[in-house]
UniProtKB/TrEMBL annotation:
InterPro entries listed in its UniProt record: DUF3080
Name of protein: DUF3080 domain-containing protein
């Protein structure tokens, strides 16, 4: 977009009047574009554009050189580097049987199934959010007949509330759709992407809002969460910018 803007500015200027443009500035712009996009068809396109500027400006613009160090410097972090360690609750067998009278027993059992242990970040987020709600409800119910159990549940609740920022970070950092949206642009930014761009911005606002939903009385809608992630993964607006 920068190069196009420069071209439009220079289009109506004669060769004599535009000779003041420093070749180094234009060269730096070309290097910046290459540094952001990689060595591909864009490199040949930039070189062609450089040749056109040489003819129009009547000056010699050095060829932009690809810096291999940018490849690793701008690479998306690996999954292991982004992994967030969320310590699970430790529940002994006696407490596990004691919580069967409220929904907490079912929620804990769900997490220990094969599917529960391999949840996607979005599924884990919904689970953790629901767990917070259930813990609060069960603590209140247990307080009426088993104060000791209620106190233990409140400790678990405090533990899970303290972990909430990590739960949200796991959703943002490790969702496949977020990786696609942040690092894999399918095409350059286009003015015709207006409606999809607005939807992608709204999806980002939605995900940012989820960071503050640890005290929600009802869990977020899993279908809506998946739809917002799909929007980010398909439009890939941040990567295009």
């Amino acid at each position: 977009m920068i190069i196009t803007h420069v071209h439009r500015k220079l289009k109506g200027v004669s060769i004599v009047e535009s000779s003041w443009v420093p070749a180094t500035i234009v060269s730096l712009l070309l290097c910046a574009v290459l540094g952001c996009a990689g060595q591909s068809q864009l490199e040949s396109a930039v070189n062609e554009y450089r040749a056109r500027l040489n003819r129009v400006l009547g000056i010699s613009i050095p060829a932009a050189k690809w810096d291999d160090s940018l490849t690793s410097a701008l690479a998306y972090p690996t999954a292991s580097a982004l992994n967030v360690n969320i310590v699970p609750m430790n529940i002994n067998l006696r407490d596990f049987y004691a919580i069967q009278d409220c929904e907490l027993g079912r929620i804990v059992a769900e997490r220990n199934t094969a599917l529960g242990k391999t949840q996607l970040p979005s599924q884990r987020f919904i689970y953790e959010q629901k767990l917070l709600t259930v813990l609060a409800n069960c603590a209140a119910i247990s307080a009426e007949g088993n104060q000791k159990l209620s106190t233990q549940i409140e400790r678990w609740l405090e533990q899970k509330q303290a972990q909430w920022p990590k739960v949200w970070a796991q959703l943002i950092q490790n969702s496949t759709e977020m990786k696609q949206g942040l690092s894999l642009a399918s095409a350059p930014l286009n003015t015709r992407d207006g409606n999809e761009g607005v939807s992608a911005v709204n999806a980002l606002f939605y995900l940012n809002h989820l960071r503050q939903t640890q005290h929600a009385t009802t869990p977020s809608n899993s279908t809506e969460l998946e739809a917002q992630l799909q929007m980010i993964g398909s439009v890939r607006l941040p990567a295009k910018i």
